[in-house]
Amino acid sequence: MSYVITSACVDEKAADCVDACPVDCIHEGEDQYYIDPDVCIACGACETMCPVAAIYYIDDVPKEEEAYIEKAVQFFNNK
Ligand code: SF4
After folding, report:
1. What confidence tens digit (pLDDT) does each residue in 15-67 have?
2. The whole model's pTM is what?
3. The 4Fe-4S ferredoxin-type domain covers which part of the protein (predicted)?
4. Pair 32, 52: CB distance under 8 Å
5. Pairing of β 33-35 and β 26-28
6. Which residues are CB-contacts of 30 (< 8 A; sequence separation ≥ 6)?
7. Is 49 in the pocket of ligand 1 (CB under 6 A)?
8. What is the DSSP string of 21-55?
9. pLDDT tens for each residue of 3-22
């Protein structure tokens, strides 16, 4: 289980979430930050820190943002 960073992060990259994460699982990509789903402990700390409300619990990701779940998986697969 994991949290997911969605479209509001793209080209925003405020990065407040990175410092909030207790397990350092938020990594910088070219256009957005990504949460490593294998490491995230679903504590929710990042969600409250995000100034653009880009972060959702995986089960709460809006339909139009669901592509970002797979985008994160691909980012870590290609690392
Ligand atoms: Fe890190 Fe917690 Fe956010 Fe997961 S939910 S990315 S562990 S701050």
Report:
1. 999 999 999 999 999 999 999 999 999 999 999 999 999 999 999 999 999 99
2. 0.96
3. 31-60
4. no
5. antiparallel
6. none
7. no
8. -TT--EEE-SSSEEE-TTT-----HHHHH-TT--E
9. 999 999 999 999 999 999 99
Structure tokens at 51: 């100034």
- The CA 10 to ligand 1 mean position distance, Å, reads 18
Find out whether the beta carbon of 53 lies less than 6 Å from any atom of ligand 1.
no
**CATH class of residue range 3-77:** alpha beta
Atom of ligand 1 nearest to the CA of 26: 6
The domains of the chain are located at: 3-77
Look up tokens 């990594």; give the residue.
Answer: 27
* 9 pocket-lining for ligand 1 (C-beta < 6 Å): no
CA dihedral 43, 67, 50, 33 (to 10 degrees): 90
Residue type, 10: V
> d(Cα 40, Cα 31) in Å, to the nearest integer?
20
